[in-house]
# Entry
Amino acid sequence: MDHFHLVDRALHCEGVSLEAIAAAAGTPTYVYSSATMDRHAAVMQQAVAGAGSGEPLVAYAVKANPNAHVLARLGKAGLGADVVSIGEYRRARAAGIAPERIVFSGVGKTAEEMAEALAGGLLQFNVESMEEARTLSAVAAEQGRAAPMGFRINPDVSAGTHAKITTGTADNKFGIAAGDALTFTREAASLPGLAVHGVTVHIGSQLVSLEPLEQAFRRLGELIAALREDGCDIRIADLGGGLGVPHGPGQPEPPSPEAYGHMVRRVTADWNTRLLFEPGRLIVGNAGVLLTRVVRVKPGVRAPWLIVDAGMNDLMRPALYDAYHRIEAVRPSGVSQVVNVVGPVCETGDTFTMDREMDRVEAGDLIVFRTAGAYGATLSSGYNSRPLAAEVLVDGDRWALIRRRVDPDALAGVETAEWQ
# Structure
């Protein structure tokens, strides 16, 4: 469920007209619904309530949408944070998320990032290689601290999703092969400054079936038992994220958070671990749209080209992942058309969809790309010297600009080069 709906035949976000936002903020602009984020955060927390031992932690994957106001809203809704860079760590802390509710993931953490996060505090580092463990040990020893550490296993389970968002097969860069876990933990436990107490798994994004998740979790459970038998005190199991979101009619329907929670309780019933979860898209994906205006309609051989003022630099997912986004007119005409929807960027890849049936629109009309609250603005760039899109947050019948449109001159570099 989201809070984008028609009022007086025009699309609104909660109690605010998207036409009014476009008139004031311009286009392209990302528009986020606070009520939708609040609801999704509550649904996910309710779905996993009572799972594991101790309080489950739903740690929002900051990479999905790192806007400071979004993070503050989700922090108030009770979510922690899963971060993959020191920049994301700083944003989470600035948004008021307590350090004991932050996990630091990612395959390429530097010693400098580790040092700052360790000094600032966190629940645990999710380590992905022995080389990384050695670096963390050196950092912890230098500070005279014990670094709380989990490690990510690679269960060699296919998520059944797009290759570029699959992360749990043997040829992915992430994690430690499950078969090497015992050797890894023995060596890691021998290093100074490491408190090895957790394991984590994440096999990919936008999953539409619980089967690969259950397969990965069962392998994780077997590993936890083997690690404990070997003397390793595993107290935290981080089950990652990846549960898909609905994209509308004709698209695969993912399992509900409730069904996911039932599966998790069943599989983890005898683990005796605290459980962590890292949803991102599930929380913010359907809480946002990209609002854009039609520049012109150009005749085509098979279908007209609907050229909009948003480009692949604003919404990269279709070009990067062949991602589907539902496209709707802000003021539906009730008459359908088949069009190719493209942006102004000088790349053939600047194509949002081909041969899509949608409401008939003309130059100057507004349309939205739905399910754009995750991996939208965060992946944007200034390619073609185009300004970064603005971002707006709606709360009931009021709205606020939470990122100004960034002028391309601000991205151009220093005014005078100082040669060294």
